[in-house]
Amino acid sequence: MMQPTRRTLAALPVARRAIGALCALCALGLAGPAAAQGFPERELSGVIMWGAGGATDVVARAITPFAEEALGKKIVLQNKAGGAGAISTNFVNQQPSDGYTLLYGAENPQLHGVMALGELDYSKFYPVNIIGRGMVVIVANKDKPWKTLKELIAETQANPGKIKMGSTGPGGLPHTVGSMIGTVTKMPVTAVPFEGEGPGLTALQGGHVDIMAVGLGAASEHIKAGRVKPLAVLSDKPHEGIAPVTQDLPAIGKYLPWGPFYGVFVKRDVPDAAKAKLVAAFKAAASNPKLVELMNGRSNVMMNISGAEADAFLKKWQSVTAWTLQEAGAAKKSPAELGIARP
Predict the structure, then answer these.
(1) Is the pTM of this model over 0.85?
(2) Where on the phi/psi map is residue 329: left (φ > 0), alpha (ψ -120 to 50), or beta?
(3) Given 58, 186, 258, 276, which residue has the most CB atoms within 10 angstroms?
(4) Exposure string (b/e) for 247-283, b if CB count within 10 Å is 16 or more?
(5) 178-237: per-residue pLDDT in tens?
(6) Distance from CA of residue 67 to its chain's centroid?
(7) Domains recognised in the chain with CATH numbers
């Protein structure tokens, strides 16, 4: 039998360490799916894309208790506004792909590419649930003289730049609605940015801005209380006594129906077992009669879709809206350049 040499004896500890390291790596690879089977084992983090009081925040805080009940774990919510949703999107994308960090988002990331705000959109995330979509209303400070959108537009054209419009930044809902209007008529206003609909509506009531396009869900209580004045709803039909935008701008009907949407997302490469548990929990949460009543009461249309169905919806929404911005001359990059097909 061959006797071990000094060189082979010296190599044994190194070989053992290499084999040990390889076994450890294999164990880690097997632990990922196994750990996901027991998901969730601890509390989760929910990152809300916009500030407190806005429509995204309201929907996120409404659905979370029902999702917690289904998951059996707490979801700790935090608002992380800024960059028209880019800050929260990037933050969640930098977290581990374990399913413990949720993004409560709105539509904005679908426009980050054409607005040159970043490269991340929802194609990089998995849609756990698209909860619903909202209606949009154009509201004014209650002390302003305008009673219709037509009167507002006439004022902006007579005094270009004088009227201040609350905004949430490039690609945000007010900016997109303004771009839609801009494809059919001139409405020269001065945009004043805020970190979400909530701060914008507060500023509107204080007279710091004159008008703002917002989700009807965020504005409904202010409208009922007479704190802001509705001029038009972005629809071809009146809603709760508010005139449709097509009454004064018939040509904008080609973009309708259109509105913001609210969803829950995780990174695309989260383990399938964790995704499945999140999907089941949020599907149950979005089916809860109390949530449905709240959403309907805030003029939202329930969707409660996930996975491939949600991906198809997101792709279509991005196509319609990105090309609207392109036609209005508001896009920083052509949708064609980004591979976004025309609707």
Answers:
(1) no
(2) left
(3) 58
(4) bbbeebeebeebbbbbbbbbbeebbebbbebbbebbb
(5) 999 998 999 999 999 998 889 999 999 999 999 999 989 889 899 999 999 999 999 999
(6) 18
(7) 44-134+260-327 (3.40.190.150), 136-255 (3.40.190.10)
